[in-house]
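Exercise 7. Predict the joint structure of the components listed below.
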Amino acid sequence: MSAFAALLVRDLRLAGRGGADALTLVLFFVMVGAVTPFAVGPDRVLLARLAPGIVWIAAFLSLLLGLDRLFRADEDDGTLLLLRQAALPLEAVVFAKLLAHWLLTALPLLVASPLLAILLSMDMDVWARTALALLLGTPALAAFGAVGAAVTVGLRRGGLLGPVLMLPLSVPVLIFGAGAIAPGSGDAALLFLAALSLVSVAFCPFAAALALRVGSE
Amino acid sequence: MTDLVTAPKSNWVSRLAHPGNFMAWSRPVLWPLGLLTALVFAVGLWFAFFNSPADYQMGDTVRIMYIHVPNAWLSQFVYGVMVVAALGTLVWRHPLADVAAKSAAPLGAAFTALALYSGALWGRPTWGTFWEWDGRMTSTLVLFFIYLGIVALWRAFDDQLRAARIVAVVTLVGALDIPIIKFSVDWWNTLHQPDSILTPTGPKMPLSILTPLFVMMLAFTLLFLLLHLVSMRTEILARRAESLGRQAAAKAGSTAGAA
Amino acid sequence: MTGPHPLLTVENLALSRGGRQLFAGLGFSLSPGQLLALRGPNGAGKSSLLLALAGILRPAAGRLDWHAEEPPKLHLLAHQPGVKARLTLAENLDFWRAVNGPTGLAASAALERVGLGALGGLDAGYLSAGQTRRLALARLLVTDRRLWLLDEPLSALDAAGDALVAGLIADRLATGGAIVAATHDDLPGATRTLTLGPPA
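Solution:
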């Protein structure tokens, strides 16, 4: 097995064996969406209109709040330090962990999104478009999140600092993600979203690896 | 079982003495209980499909009720079981109560999910939508979230002995909160939604509907008891396997020599 | 200085942590077959020197000359073992074998060597501190690297564990490797000792 695949498989395996993190995140996502009607009222027309935005806010919050887990466990047991001597560069290590993190946190949200669609009386077309936007936009969120996690991993009480740092940086994802539903400019927004994800996934592992290096100096 | 009781420095292992008795008496119970469950299900389903009238408005879809109502009943009954188990954990510190509470939680979540799912299937032809923010459905949804949160909390702990006490506290807080949730949801719902809601179970039902309904409720309750027993046994076996692993590690540590 | 082909030459090295200078003007060279023991009181900078050699800490001044090998391929045994509970012992080792390069022993052979041979399928979270340390040592065996940096290699180990470490060190030195070890105990086979002074 290649070093990259070994990292990926290890992270997936660790998540699969106990550890309720992924489940909790999906739960958080669905709950944020499901409590909104308590605040705005159960009017079906209003809910349907708000639904894509609610789904995006829910995904946005759950991904940002979950990002602290990205490096925390490996930092705590010394693995991150030892990975510095690995046969593959730290940037690739970060990318492997980023990929595993996306598979474990963003993909489950996508799978759970039909549930929210039903609760918020979205129709099928709007849901499909929202799901597509999530698919295209969440890699960018995860990539920004990796930078936030790398910057705060050395801080004992960094838990909420990473999200606070990365939330403003992730605003474009939210804008284009929610904009993907708009009738006219939706396709352009989807393209922007895809471009944003590609650029950030290419760039952020380098920034995160740099942050990890500097952080341990 | 007895070989585990002597394991040193392992708090809950010694407490598995009672679960040892449980394992002994529960094994011969499983098969008869399974057969009884299957029998009652067969009778109930026969009533439900062939020997009960179709509704004059809803037609044959009314038969979903025979699945929906038992699951809705179990979604609350299982929480009751968990509350009793939580009291057992906190007050009497009985190890079997921990196991009972832990294995009940996913079952409760599953029955609640089935209640929501069958409700959605029923709602589609009746209301024209899978989901309606009806008071009863909404509080069931909140209950579902509570179940899932408890399951996640169980999974988050490595030390299941500590987990048991903490989950028990959450379970009891939830039990106190559930009536408040029900009340507030009803208040919220009547505030926002004046239109009439078709209640799934009307106040007056003929015996031809009540009979299969009660048989099905009995069948599902038996099913829960059966699954709960099996799941408790599995949990005890899993804990035993874990303690054997720790023992193997401890034993190897005392004999491992230098090369 | 000592050997014809030194593995590493350190010249005029200075390290600071948190604005405080740990040491300055440090110089030594390390040739294959040598074990350099780092001694000194707590806070003298033994662990920091190891981290600097591993390329994790940036020296305040001075130069690390790795001669032929650049970037250096080395093993670090730090305080934290880098062992994952919820993975079996064998899975832990297979992971490091894949990540660092499968140039050493197979996982099962490495476990055998550190006295954990029977436990390959066990959850690593069940291990005692000493056993976890042994597993961390096994990581050094699944990938063949010439230079080992060991931080307190004898900590958490019993007498049999001490003998195991001595054996592993002797093997590594005999096959052309070199070791730098920070230690409070007497390490058997130490060819040289470098004592870092009390913090200034």
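Discussion. The interface with chain B takes residues 85, 113-116, 118-119, 122-123, 125-128, 130-131, 134, 160-164, 166-167 of chain C (CB under 8 Å).
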